[in-house]
Design brief:
Distance between the termini: 9 Å
Largest sheet: none
Shape: globular
Number of helices: 8
CATH superfamily: YidB-like
CATH class: Mainly Alpha
Strand content: under 5%
Structural class: mainly alpha
Radius of gyration: 14 Å
Order of helices and strands: HHHHHHHH
Number of domains: 1
CATH architecture: Orthogonal Bundle
Length: 150
């Protein structure tokens, strides 16, 4: 978990991130899909990533689940720019909230103590850099790559 937290902090200018936003990001990203806790030690494809559930440690099934949710929410091109090697496109809070879904935003707001509006505003500012930092090779990282980041 420490390497994910360090990756998130390094994606924020100055590394200064408030605890509520860190909680929200970890809830979105820390899961079996991101860490691919399979016994094979190989990268899981999108078809074998865990579905959204609390038991996997994250609300959306990790980084892959987050990107999938953004794609289905109409922000596929924006999210792809975060993963790719080009310039990160910005996303407005009024587009990010609906793309993530009101259920996710409400859950995160409850966990963090932030209002839904403040949460989506902060996430819209930080998610592009966080996703970019977590995908330096322009794709979802493999288990071996994640293990090497420690």
């Amino acid at each position: 978990m420490a390497s994910l937290e360090n990756s998130i902090r390094s994606a924020v200018p100055g590394g200064n991130i408030g605890k509520p936003l860190m909680i929200a990001l970890l809830a979105l990203l820390a899961s079996g899909a991101l860490f691919r806790g399979s016994s094979t030690g190989t990268a899981a494809n999108a078809g074998s990533q865990p579905k959204s559930d609390e038991g996997s440690g994250g609300l959306l099934g990790g980084l892959g689940g987050l990107l999938d949710r953004l794609q289905k929410g109409g922000l596929g091109d924006v999210a792809s720019s975060w993963v790719g090697s080009g310039q990160n496109q910005s996303v407005s809070p009024n587009k990010l909230g609906p793309a993530l879904g009101s259920d996710i935003i409400k859950t995160l707001a409850q966990r963090t103590g932030l209002s839904e509006e403040e949460l989506t505003r902060q996430l819209s500012q930080i998610l592009p850099n966080v996703v970019d930092k977590l995908t330096p090779a322009g794709r979802l990282p493999t288990l071996a790559e994640l293990s090497d980041t420690g």
